[in-house]
Write a structure and sequence with these properties.
alpha+beta, 3 helices, 14% strand
Protein backbone atom coordinates (compact mmCIF):
# COMPACT_ATOMS: atom_id res chain seq x y z
CA UNK A 1 0.00 0.00 0.00
CA UNK A 2 2.98 2.29 0.46
CA UNK A 3 3.80 1.94 -3.24
CA UNK A 4 0.16 2.71 -4.04
CA UNK A 5 0.33 5.91 -1.98
CA UNK A 6 3.61 7.00 -3.60
CA UNK A 7 2.16 6.31 -7.06
CA UNK A 8 -0.84 8.53 -6.30
CA UNK A 9 1.40 11.25 -4.83
CA UNK A 10 3.41 11.29 -8.07
CA UNK A 11 0.24 11.52 -10.17
CA UNK A 12 -1.07 14.31 -7.92
CA UNK A 13 2.15 16.29 -8.44
CA UNK A 14 1.76 15.76 -12.20
CA UNK A 15 -1.77 17.18 -12.05
CA UNK A 16 -3.49 13.91 -12.97
CA UNK A 17 -5.08 13.11 -9.59
CA UNK A 18 -7.74 15.59 -8.49
CA UNK A 19 -8.46 13.81 -5.21
CA UNK A 20 -7.91 10.42 -3.65
CA UNK A 21 -8.73 8.76 -0.37
CA UNK A 22 -10.50 5.93 1.40
CA UNK A 23 -13.97 5.80 2.81
CA UNK A 24 -13.75 4.43 6.31
CA UNK A 25 -16.74 2.18 6.72
CA UNK A 26 -15.68 -1.15 8.20
CA UNK A 27 -16.29 -4.02 5.79
CA UNK A 28 -17.65 -1.60 3.18
CA UNK A 29 -14.44 0.45 3.02
CA UNK A 30 -13.35 1.46 -0.47
CA UNK A 31 -11.08 4.01 -2.09
CA UNK A 32 -12.00 6.72 -4.53
CA UNK A 33 -9.58 8.31 -6.97
CA UNK A 34 -10.69 11.11 -9.27
CA UNK A 35 -8.29 11.67 -12.15
CA UNK A 36 -8.30 14.24 -14.91
CA UNK A 37 -7.37 12.73 -18.26
CA UNK A 38 -8.03 13.39 -21.93
CA UNK A 39 -9.34 9.87 -22.56
CA UNK A 40 -10.96 6.97 -20.77
CA UNK A 41 -8.03 4.84 -21.97
CA UNK A 42 -5.58 7.07 -20.10
CA UNK A 43 -7.65 6.74 -16.93
CA UNK A 44 -7.73 2.95 -17.45
CA UNK A 45 -3.94 2.91 -17.83
CA UNK A 46 -3.50 4.89 -14.61
CA UNK A 47 -5.62 2.34 -12.76
CA UNK A 48 -3.91 -0.67 -14.34
CA UNK A 49 -0.45 0.69 -13.51
CA UNK A 50 -1.26 1.27 -9.84
CA UNK A 51 1.02 -1.06 -7.83
CA UNK A 52 -1.81 -2.25 -5.58
CA UNK A 53 -4.01 -3.02 -8.60
CA UNK A 54 -1.18 -4.84 -10.37
CA UNK A 55 -0.51 -6.91 -7.23
CA UNK A 56 -4.18 -7.89 -6.92
CA UNK A 57 -4.54 -6.11 -3.56
CA UNK A 58 -7.20 -3.79 -4.91
CA UNK A 59 -9.60 -3.92 -7.80
CA UNK A 60 -11.06 -1.00 -9.67
CA UNK A 61 -13.42 0.33 -12.25
CA UNK A 62 -13.12 3.42 -14.44
CA UNK A 63 -16.29 5.48 -14.60
CA UNK A 64 -16.82 8.89 -16.20
CA UNK A 65 -17.26 11.72 -13.70
CA UNK A 66 -17.83 15.44 -14.06
CA UNK A 67 -17.28 17.85 -11.19
CA UNK A 68 -20.37 20.04 -10.92
CA UNK A 69 -19.52 21.84 -7.66
CA UNK A 70 -16.16 22.31 -5.95
CA UNK A 71 -15.21 24.31 -2.89
CA UNK A 72 -12.21 26.63 -3.08
CA UNK A 73 -10.33 24.71 -0.38
CA UNK A 74 -10.38 21.21 1.06
CA UNK A 75 -9.95 20.37 4.75
CA UNK A 76 -7.29 17.71 5.44
CA UNK A 77 -7.22 15.49 8.50
Amino acid sequence: MGDHFQYLKKLTAEGKVVLAGPSINGEKTFGLIVVETDTKEEAQSIMENDPSYKAGIQKGEVLPFRIALLRDSVKKE
